[in-house]
Amino acid sequence: MWFFRAPTIVFGEDALSYLSTLPIRKALIVTDRHLRTTELPEKVSRALPEGAERLVLGDVGEEPDLDEMTRHLDQIRKFEPDWIVGLGGGSSIDTAKILFVLYERPDLTVYDTTPLQPLGLRHKSRLVAIPTTSGTGSECTWAAVLSERQEKRKHELASPEIIPDYAILDPEMVVGLPVEQTRNTAVDAITHAIEGYVSTWKNPFSDAMSEKALELILGNLLIVLKNPKDTAARNAVHVGASMAGLSFSNSQIGLAHALGHALGARYKTPHGKAVGIFLPLVVEFNSSACQDRFDRLNALFPSPVRAGSLAGSLKKLFGAMGQDATVAALGVKREEYFAALDELASMAAESTGLVTNPRDAGSAELRELLTQAYGEEG
Ligand SMILES: [Zn+2]
């Protein structure tokens, strides 16, 4: 027995206006410090039903920890929202998910939930996710990540009940996304689609999501990078990124995420950039376990960026995008990096991504991939 889990997805131009049809009395809008200074929170507020009250929490940082997430719980409990709206990238949406759990279940901490334990949420509120990046897939997934600063680690809260009730994919929310973030988050989405497609938990539903996600992203990403205001191309990449989220959320991620998380935790590399450095190397490493699947995905690359193998096509695509492809390019010093190699390998070895990767990787293989990822200093 297996499941395919997904929010109700409202997508395309004007999708945001759907908010006005929901029975919202009091909306808590959770967003980050950068977005707070843009017009987007106001756009969302204006889309709420007439007469609805709102409280905007606009101080989510790039890697929120538990203190940051729970600082406002008293205020939230006093406000008594009946809808919680996560507006932003993965951090804002993940924060909204965690606040949702703690608001609904004041008797719980984030550490005493397990994926299979029923949480009994939705007695007080419902959850909406409005992504402003095209990549993390958080609007579709049943996980929320929080940082543990002291331990330089991440904790993941997972429960099918934190899949948002609605994911609203409006291209207006991403047309202003800066090019650098557009690149990094798109690479994250491509990684989700590929890792979800070869995970040992892959299934026909996740397969379909991966294939279509790649077709949409690969067919439109270079257009978006050239002309960020192209709404139709933005829309295609935005929908594709959510489909990639649905793929890995209903199968699993793999080794590129395991290694990318380790790199990101140590060097604060943006998530998409970190996983993207490892993706072509991991695809090469995994090829012997799933060559036919990689060939099928490679055929989806448009001819200008298609090579003889999936790993080759990824390198070509990243080159065309101007995406940093090595650790050296991040400015990490060679000595520092190689001194940290064991620590990075053991951090990667603890990741769930390793369990569902199509090919086993022990510490020697992890070290080898980390070594290759350093690349040449320019
Ligand atoms: Zn990711």
- Termini separation comes to 51 Å
List unreliable stretches of 5+ residues: none
What is the strand content?
A: 5-15%
Q: Major sheet: size, sense and barrel closure?
A: 6 strands, parallel
Mean pLDDT: 95
Q: Class of the largest domain, according to the CATH hierarchy? A: Mainly Alpha
How many structurally independent domains?
Answer: 2
Question: Based on helices, strands and strand pairing, what is the structural class?
Answer: alpha/beta
Can you offer a commentary on this structure?
With 378 residues, the chain is α/β, with parallel strands linked by helices. The chain folds into 2 domains: 166 residues, Rossmann fold; 196 residues, Dehydroquinate synthase-like - alpha domain (Dehydroquinate synthase-like, alpha domain). Helices cover 47% and strands 12% of the residues. It has 13 helices and 8 strands. The strands form 2 sheets. Strands 1-8-5-4-2-3 form a 6-stranded parallel beta sheet. The protein has a two-stranded antiparallel ribbon with strand order 6-7. β6 and β7 form a beta hairpin. α6 packs antiparallel against α7, α9 crosses α10 and α9 packs across α13. The termini are far apart. Bound molecules: zinc ion. Zinc ion (ZN) binds next to α5 and α9.
Secondary structure: elements and pairs:
Elements: E1 8-11, E2 26-32, H1 40-47, E3 53-60, H2 66-70, H3 73-79, E4 83-88, H4 90-104, E5 126-131, E6 143-148, E7 153-158, E8 166-169, H5 179-198, H6 204-226, H7 231-250, H8 255-267, H9 271-298, H10 310-321, H11 334-339, H12 341-349, H13 363-374
Parallel strand pairs: 1-8, 2-3, 2-4, 4-5, 5-8
Antiparallel strand pairs: 6-7
Zinc ion (ZN) binds at residues 188, 191-192, 257, 271, 275.
